[in-house]
Amino acid sequence: MLKVRFLGHSCFTLSDGTHTVVIDPFISGNPVCPVKAADLKVDGVLVSHGHSDHLGDAIPIAKRCGATIVANHEIASFCAGQGAPAHGMHIGGARQFPFAWVKLTPAWHGSGIDYQGQMVYGGMPSGFVVRMGGRTVYHPGDTGLFGDMELIGRLHPLDLALLPIGDNYTMGPDDAVEAVRMLKPKRVVPMHYSTFDLIKQDGAAFAKRLEGLAPCTVLKPGETLEL
Ligand code: NI
Ligand code: MN
């Protein structure tokens, strides 16, 4: 059993009843996030890339909870430098943590960290395959469509794919439909849309386009899906 709670934008918590991880905790400054960063109790914090709408509150959450930040080596080093527990990995690598099995996957995007008015190098952006509570979930981070999604879906049969549909910075709905064809997940949840006007999309219309491909659940921020 796995509970997947959407907190708006690309932020989700995954809970198996024993452990909880948060992915891309953009909470402070996220206009649609229904919780406060201080309310989260987590064991792991997965950060897909360095942009502020993904790194978000990762450092204060990890420090307060004693949770491990899992990210690429560059972001993990940056977070460790800020005093947060952090574990660096890189694309293609997987590791069993006490709270989940995590594999870093490629993403076509940027990863710079905005820090004190400078852009700090944040390595290559990533996505995640996470296995927890007997379920396998793909969180691609911010990415455009790429053909190796077929490989990700074949190597890791997916119970759930969380897919960006906001366009402009990531895949839009057209490319996300193609991603579903390649990933062949058992279920889809759209993300990274309608947080701001620039990435406004119709989640229900996207779900309708997936009819015959995969069931799609459109979660409102704060809602939970049980797998
Ligand atoms: Ni980004
Ligand atoms: Mn983003």
Features of the shown structure:
globular; binds manganese (II) ion; Metallo-beta-lactamase, Chain A; binds nickel (II) ion; alpha/beta
Summarize the structure.
With about 230 residues, the protein is an alpha/beta fold. It has helices at about 50-55, 60-65, 75-80, 150-155, 175-185, 205-210; strands at about 5, 10-15, 20-25, 45, 70, 85-90, 95, 100-105, 115, 120, 125-130, 135-140, 160-165, 190, 225. It has one domain (about 5-220): Metallo-beta-lactamase, Chain A (4-Layer Sandwich).
How would you describe the overall organization of this protein?
- By secondary structure, the chain is of the alpha/beta class.
- It has one domain: Metallo-beta-lactamase, Chain A (4-Layer Sandwich), CATH 3.60.15.
- The protein is built from 6 helices and 15 strands.
- The protein has helices at 52-55, 58-65, 73-81, 149-155, 173-183, 203-209, and strands at residues 3-6, 12-15, 20-23, 44-46, 68-72, 86-89, 94-96, 101-106, 113-115, 118-120, 126-132, 135-139, 160-164, 188-191, 224-226.
- The strands form 3 sheets. The protein has a 7-stranded mixed beta sheet with strand order 6-5-4-3-2-1-15.
- Helix 4 packs parallel to helix 5.
- The termini are close together.
- 48% of the residues are buried.
- The mean pLDDT is 98.
- It binds nickel (II) ion and manganese (II) ion.
List the helices and strands and how they pair.
Blueprint: E1 3-6, E2 12-15, E3 20-23, E4 44-46, H1 52-55, H2 58-65, E5 68-72, H3 73-81, E6 86-89, E7 94-96, E8 101-106, E9 113-115, E10 118-120, E11 126-132, E12 135-139, H4 149-155, E13 160-164, H5 173-183, E14 188-191, H6 203-209, E15 224-226
Parallel strand pairs: 3-4, 4-5, 5-6, 12-13, 13-14
Antiparallel strand pairs: 1-2, 1-15, 2-3, 7-8, 8-11, 9-10, 11-12
